[in-house]
Amino acid sequence: MGRNLVLVLALALFCACTTPAQPSELSEDLFPGCGNSAELGNGIVLLPHHLLVKDYIEAMYTSLSSQDWKHVVIVSPDHFHAGATHISTPPETEHGFTVHRDLVNEYFPDATVEGFMLQTETTEEEVVDLVQTLQGRENTLFIFSIDFSHYLPGDIAYVHDLRSMDILSARDVTAARSVEVDSPVAVEVLLRLLIEKDEVLTNMLNTNPSKDIGIDTFENTTHVFACSTSLGLDEAPTRDLTIDMFFAHPRDWYLGRTAEDRYLYGTDTTHFDQGGTDHAIVTNSFKGTTTEFTFDYFE
Fold it and tell me: Do residues 48 and 147 make contact, with C-beta atoms less than 8 angstroms apart?
């Protein structure tokens, strides 16, 4: 399986995240400021539940532990459709919940813990009702347990994550369910809660195991870490990036070539049957720049 990645302009022009440190380099201030949201009464945190990056997760908890949280709410996917309803209490088999429940018990042993797991079919009305329920809680840490791009090599996963982070930064609820993550519904809840509290995500960090260690594999999961702040929010943020994907073959040609057909998603606009080589064009409207990525994953 070959790979040919072309950067027309420097990737740094687009990346709003920091370059991940290696686990041995992690420090207690990897996520500065993420423990200070309690001064506002609440904190909102985005974390993966993929324990490959447990060191990063624990670095976030170390930052959060500077505050004495009384209540913690964990919002996770319903990975195995175990819930009797679209929104339900997670069982022990739901690792999206239990991974963080156990860490909360370790770092905040006196806090009460509440969990909600969400099915893909959760309606917008149900999401709005849940956000209103969450909005009323005081001295509460909200943990959104979400893993990002799945089953894709590092380069295409990175493009998908660029779009996802742009949507998160802009709090673009209209695009929430089109992000390439394990629970788009949880992303919608996250964004609606941020808007209700007039907060934005900060300290955003993206890890991509395939790119980080230089191995092309379709067995890859990426991660985004972030926490909320209301400081400096003078106006509502807007999206900076637009991502167009140009596929060499018709859509049906790609079906079944990747798990859950995730290769086909995670972009704003798709163009099929283009000939040549699959490629993505990332346009940054704020900087007035473009970057082209080319992909050669399939014979």
Answer: yes
Instruction: Over range 157-179, report the average pLDDT.
Output: 97
pLDDT in tens, 116-157: 999 999 999 999 999 999 988 888 999 999 999 999 999 999
- The alpha carbon dihedral of 79, 84, 85, 87 has a sign of negative
Per DSSP, the three-state class of 148 is coil
The answer to whether residues 159 and 293 touch, using CB atoms and an 8 Å cutoff, is yes
Residue whose C-alpha is closest to residue 191's, from 46, 79, 18: 46
Determine the distance from the C-alpha atom of residue 228 to the mean position of all C-alpha atoms in its chain, rounded to a whole number: 14
pLDDT in tens, 2-49: 322 222 222 222 333 334 444 445 555 688 778 776 555 579 999 999
**What DSSP element (H or E) covers 145?**
strand 140-145
pLDDT (mean) for 62-72: 90
Q: Same domain, yes or no, for 132 and 277?
A: no
Beta carbons within 8 Å of 85's beta carbon, 6+ residues apart:
none
- In this prediction the pTM is 0.90
Structural domain of residue 283, as residue ranges?
A: 241-295
Sheet holding 71-77, edge to edge: 87-88, 112-118, 71-77, 140-145, 42-47, 223-229, 200-207
Are 284 and 253 members of one domain?
A: yes
- Domain end (from 175, 202, 229): 229
CA distance 114 to 130: 13
According to the model, what pLDDT value does residue 233 have? 67
Lowest mean pLDDT across 6-20, 51-65, 154-168, 206-220: 6-20
Burial class (CB in 10 A: 0-12, 13-18, 19+), 212: middle
Report H helices in the chain. Answer: 54-64, 95-107, 124-135, 154-170, 184-196, 209-213, 251-254
C-alpha to C-alpha distance for 30 and 42, rounded to whole angstroms: 21
Return the SS3 of 219.
coil
206 and 287, same domain (yes or no): no
